[in-house]
Amino acid sequence: MSNLSRIEWRTSEHQIGYPESLKDQEARNIAIQNGEQPELIWLLEHPPLYTAGTSSDPSELLSNEFPVFETGRGGRHTYHGPGQRVGYILLDLKRRQADVRNFVHALENWIIATLAEFGVSARAVEGRVGIWCDTPDGQEAKIGAIGIRIRKWVTMHGFSVNIDPDLDHFTGIIPCGISEYPVTSLRQLGITASMSNFDAALKKSAPSFFAAIE
Predict the structure, then answer these.
(1) pLDDT of residue 67 exceeding 50
(2) Which runs of E-coded beta strand occur in 113-208?
(3) How far apart are CA 55 and CA 51, in angstroms?
(4) What three-state secondary structure class fits 47?
């Protein structure tokens, strides 16, 4: 099992601009490839913005209220903003299972296990990107997004989970190309949780994630 003490856990207390975060990830990705810096799990928040993945359809961008950034991760349009925990995961899969599908599945299960710490029964759904749960009225809704990129077996990007964002901000896009289902958050589910609460739950669930990718 991975020695978690060898992985840098970075938590940014202030909002990080998207271009800055991408530049930092790209530099760290190369440093990890070259064995110059440790692997990184970076937890942060962004100011309101939209990102466009490699499969993005311009027709799914419905508003120009917030800036849009092209990104090399897989997937379509996503929203990032205050109240949403973003996790950038930079790990060297050559040290583990060089299996992209397994990595994504393990990442999904990590978020699902973390949400379970707050009493949320979340799940991945075949054919639908992201992490899903039921709202109090029984409607299925998306609470988390996943999008990754891998360069020379070192991962980039990662996940976002809605803690207490302004859900109206999601109306400027068709999130991940899925219009049939709404987006939800821990707050909308009636759960009060701080970012530090969520981060602590992530760390608690981390060993099973790393065990799954060994």
Answers:
(1) yes
(2) 123-125, 128-134, 140-151, 154-162
(3) 11
(4) coil
AA letter at 55 = S
Residues whose CB is less than 8 angstroms from the CB of residue 152 and which lie 6 or more positions away in sequence, other chains included? 33
What does DSSP say about strands 123-125 and 84-90: parallel, antiparallel, or unpaired?
unpaired
Label residue 175 by pLDDT band (50, 70, 90): low
Task: Give the CATH number for residue 205.
Answer: 3.30.930.10
Q: How far apart are CA 95 and CA 122, in angstroms?
A: 29
Return the active site residues: 176
Say what the pTM is: 0.94
Which residue range forms the structural domain that includes residue 39? Answer: 4-213
Domain count, the chain: 1
Confidence class for position 77, pLDDT limits 50, 70, 90: confident
Round the CA-based radius of gyration of the chain to a whole number and report it. 16
Using an 8 Å Cβ cutoff, are 46 and 68 in contact? Answer: no
Assess whether pLDDT exceeds 70 at residue 176.
no
